């Protein structure tokens, strides 16, 4: 009886990791699988580990070939596959127990050609999200396609997926030789697929090897490695130009932010002038060939780095990258230029430097300016609800901001002043007296206005951080409303207080008078 799924595992000199990988495949809750292990000319004895699995588990098969690289080794394994579905695992990685069951179940239910899921990295500090995949798999998306969800341009690995094997064969998919063989195949598969399923489940654990290893990731600063990265990306560009030209800007935008960031790091880290020159010979023309509509969508600091890379300005590139890593570009001095229609420019390194003649548009942050305002802690103490948080305008230097806070009742839109204090760096502490809200029904939203010298101001709602700390009196009359993570900071009445409207008595009159007095008070922070 043919297996439901075939998993292809090429390996070459990974004796330290192969056992854990194969054990994770043997432990899959989807038991109807076959594992084709392809020994790609290993010399470190890891073939003995593979032999052991083949001897004691009939689902494991071992084949050997001369060392050709992971692409040809995978192709050899595909030729031996008998399963209805196809998957790939690298020999130094780990597959969670339910991964293939979840992916295959999705394909069986939807009829899609590909099912893919989330990825985490195995590091010396533990598991962490994969930056390449972290934003793609937050919720279920069934029967979608890369032309409708262009974020899938980042999903260019083949091992966090299960493919319908008939689909793979129909489109003649095959891995090229050399490094970075995943991207040309993964993107081509996304384009050719009729439908794709995305699952929020973590289906793959991608290992970050210790220093001194020989992984592709660790060698990515070498000129030969960079040359193969550029060649693979050129292949993807050419494929999209022919089959899906509308996706080319999305690809080039990703190349500019992800791949050329890696290449720029290699350029600036190269101490040998000859190595740096070779890297620039590869990177500068490739960066120059990116679509301008994609470049225009990049943040200013990325446009600046790209301009410097295109023009082989390696020393200046190193300084800008150093400034970014030190946080100096996240909080920059901004300058307004223009009269009737003005723009805002960030004073990143070399801004206004006439000798270097950098174009002004690489410093233009007008479209990036945004309000960032969050409550981090809510505490009821001494009869008041205290809210601690921050508010600033990005990417503006926080120390130059001034804040104003108030509440807005959602139903009536009534604005209600509150007491607050501010600190350098956009920090604030606000206090809400229940008496101030005695006449309202609620709930109330916290609002803020941030002002920067020079005329820049933004106002809007304050949100909550994802994991906001709460403390204080459990019987407090006011509380921050429970809602979705990072939602608006909404204050609600927990219970009616004695003497509030509708309860009568002198206490009610006193509460209302206290509210009026507090509402007339102008806070020191305002």
Please summarize the sheet with the most strands. 9 strands, mixed
What is the CATH topology descriptor of the largest domain? Spore Coat Polysaccharide Biosynthesis Protein SpsA, Chain A
Query: Strand fraction band?
Result: 25-35%
Number of domains: 3
Shape type: globular
Residue-averaged pLDDT: 90
As a whole number of angstroms, the C-alpha radius of gyration is 29 Å
What's the tally of helices? 13
What would you give as the CATH superfamily of the largest domain? Spore Coat Polysaccharide Biosynthesis Protein SpsA, Chain A
User: Which architecture of the largest domain per CATH?
Assistant: Alpha-Beta Complex
Number of strands: 22
Residue windows where pLDDT falls under 50 for at least 5 positions: 497-526
InterPro entries: Glyco_trans_2-like (IPR001173), Nucleotide-diphossugar_trans (IPR029044)
GO molecular function, one term: hexosyltransferase activity
Protein name: Glycosyltransferase 2-like domain-containing protein
Organism: Spongiactinospora rosea
């Amino acid at each position: 009886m043919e297996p439901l799924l075939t998993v292809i595992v090429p390996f070459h000199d990974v004796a330290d990791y192969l056992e854990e990988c194969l054990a994770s495949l043997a432990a899959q809750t989807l038991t109807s699988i076959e594992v084709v292990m392809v020994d790609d000319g290993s010399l470190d004895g890891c073939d003995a580990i593979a032999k052991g699995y083949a001897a004691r588990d009939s689902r494991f098969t071992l084949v050997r070939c001369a060392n050709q690289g992971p692409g040809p080794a995978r192709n050899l394994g595909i030729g031996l596959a008998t399963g209805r579905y196809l998957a790939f695992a690298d020999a130094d990685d780990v597959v969670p127990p339910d991964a293939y069951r979840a992916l295959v179940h999705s394909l069986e239910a939807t009829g899609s050609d590909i099912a893919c899921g989330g990825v985490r990295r195995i590091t010396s500090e533990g598991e962490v999200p994969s930056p390449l995949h972290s934003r793609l798999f937050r919720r279920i998306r069934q029967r979608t396609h890369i032309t409708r969800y262009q974020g899938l341009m980042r999903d260019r690995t083949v091992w966090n997926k299960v493919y319908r094997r008939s689909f793979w064969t129909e489109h003649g998919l095959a891995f090229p030789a050399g490094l970075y063989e995943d991207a040309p195949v993964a993107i081509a598969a996304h384009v050719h697929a009729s439908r794709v399923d995305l699952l929020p489940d973590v289906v793959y654990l991608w290992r970050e090897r210790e220093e001194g290893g020989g992984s592709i990731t660790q060698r990515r600063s070498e000129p030969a490695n960079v040359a193969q990265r550029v060649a693979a990306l050129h292949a993807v560009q050419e494929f999209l130009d022919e089959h899906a030209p509308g996706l080319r800007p999305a690809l080039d935008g990703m190349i500019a932010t992800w791949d050329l960031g890696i290449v720029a790091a290699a350029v600036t880290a190269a101490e040998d002038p000859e190595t740096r020159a070779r890297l620039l010979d590869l990177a500068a023309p490739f960066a120059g060939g990116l679509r301008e509509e994609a470049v225009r969508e990049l943040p200013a600091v990325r446009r600046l780095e790209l301009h410097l890379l295109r023009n082989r300005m390696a020393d200046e590139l190193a300084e800008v990258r150093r400034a970014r890593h030190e946080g100096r570009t996240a909080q920059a001095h901004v300058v307004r230029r223009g009269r009737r229609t003005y723009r805002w420019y960030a004073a990143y390194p070399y801004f206004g430097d006439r000798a270097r003649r950098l174009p002004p548009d690489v410093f233009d942050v007008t479209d990036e300016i945004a309000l960032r305002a969050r409550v981090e802690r809510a505490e009821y103490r001494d009869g008041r609800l205290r809210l601690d948080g921050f508010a600033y305008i990005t990417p503006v230097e926080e120390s130059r901001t001034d804040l104003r806070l108030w509440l807005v009742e959602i139903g009536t839109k009534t604005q209600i002043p509150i007491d607050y204090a501010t600190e350098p760096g956009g920090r604030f502490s606000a206090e809400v007296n229940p008496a101030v809200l005695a006449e309202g029904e609620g709930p109330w939203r916290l609002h803020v206005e941030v002002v920067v010298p020079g005329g820049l101001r933004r106002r809007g709602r304050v949100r909550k951080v994802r994991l906001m700390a709460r403390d204080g009196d459990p019987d407090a009359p006011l509380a921050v409303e429970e809602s979705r993570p990072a939602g608006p900071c909404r204050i609600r009445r927990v219970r009616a207080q004695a003497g509030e409207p509708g309860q009568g008595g002198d206490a009610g009159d006193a509460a209302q008078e206290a509210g009026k007095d507090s509402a007339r008070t102008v806070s020191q922070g305002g």
